[in-house]
Amino acid sequence: MTDLRVMVIGEKPTFLTKVVCKKITESGTECNFVPWTVNDINNNWENTALVIMYMEEDERPSETLLHFIMDKMADTGNMMIPIGTHDDIAFIIDHMRGDLIYRSFRRPVNNEELVSCVKDYITKTESGEFKKSLLVVDDDASFLGVVRDWLKDSYKVSLVNSGIQAIKWLAKNKVDLILLDYEMPVTSGPQVLEMLRNDPENANIPVMFLTGKGDKESVMKVLSLKPEGYFLKTIEKAELIKNLNDFFVRKKAPSH
User: Fold this and answer.
1) Are 198 and 175 in contact (CB under 8 A)?
2) Which of 52, 58, 150, 243 is deepest in the core (most CB within 10 A)?
3) How many other C-beta atoms lie within 10 A of the C-beta of residue 238?
């Protein structure tokens, strides 16, 4: 059985939610019912990979609760399956980011179809299909290893040890974000970023500097190229991961 869990959320446990939890557990994924209160959800969040919002007759969560769940899912990379009437599902969609909703089901639910959907989601999660991909560019092999170990649980991480290798890698692969060293032999970080910005295929790839160069002149030199961030290698693991998570949350957020 996988370590990942499914959390079924509803106003109160019912025969229908018990059946759903039983069938998902029998399929090989632990599944628990949790009342839709902030404390209950927060206390049971560990190892949760998927949230099923089960709305029965005349039951809907509050907007405050939905915002809390949305923030939790955005932080931990989870998704939701809402179950209810057409209007119930529309209510959830109106109050949640669309990229956090995996699929929806109208009541009455076909449990076999729901279980199949859950198994598909868990398989994709375990294979890393939903993880954002990062390319780390640095000529320091030991530092590349450290960054990979820091980020591999949250992201798909690829490594190259020079600016030229980065350009060659990007010719064959797609990536969601580049972490770029500043000072490298032959082709420096700023030169790599300038090449990317002048290449129509790669011009829009977000780039953050992760470097030991912290002097004002070096920082100012690349600001005109508009990197998404500039971090020193002295940054702690937790702070780096938080900055990356915050970046992807901002990137997904709708503009007003």
Assistant:
1) no
2) 52
3) 9
Return all residues near 178 (Cβ < 8 A) that are at least 6 apart: 134, 135, 136, 137, 166, 196, 205, 206, 207, 208
Boundary-marking domain end, from 93, 127, 161: 127
Average pLDDT over the chain, rounded to an integer: 91
Q: Indicate which CATH number applies to the domain containing 193.
A: 3.40.50.2300
> Side-chain half-sphere of 145: how many Cα atoms within 13 Å?
3
Which range among 35-44, 127-136, 219-228 shows the weakest confidence by mean pLDDT? Answer: 219-228
94 shares a domain with 37: yes
Q: How many domains does the chain have?
A: 2
127, 147, 162 — which closes off a domain?
Answer: 127
What tokens were used for 99? 């990229």
Residues 70 and 169 in one domain: no
- Residue 255 — very low, low, confident or very high, per pLDDT cuts 50/70/90? very low
For 20, the token pair is 């759903």
User: Does residue 76 surpass a pLDDT of 90?
Assistant: no
From residue 2, give the alpha-carbon distance in Å to each of 27, 81, 152, 247: 10, 19, 19, 29
Q: What is the three-class DSSP state of 242?
A: helix
| 66 and 120 fall within a common domain | yes
Whole-model pTM? 0.69
Confidence at residue 90, expressed as pLDDT on a 0 to 100 scale: 94
Q: What pLDDT was estimated at residue 127?
A: 82
CB 29 within 8 A of CB 54: no
156 contacts 184 by C-beta, under 8 angstroms: no
Domain that residue 10 falls in: 5-127
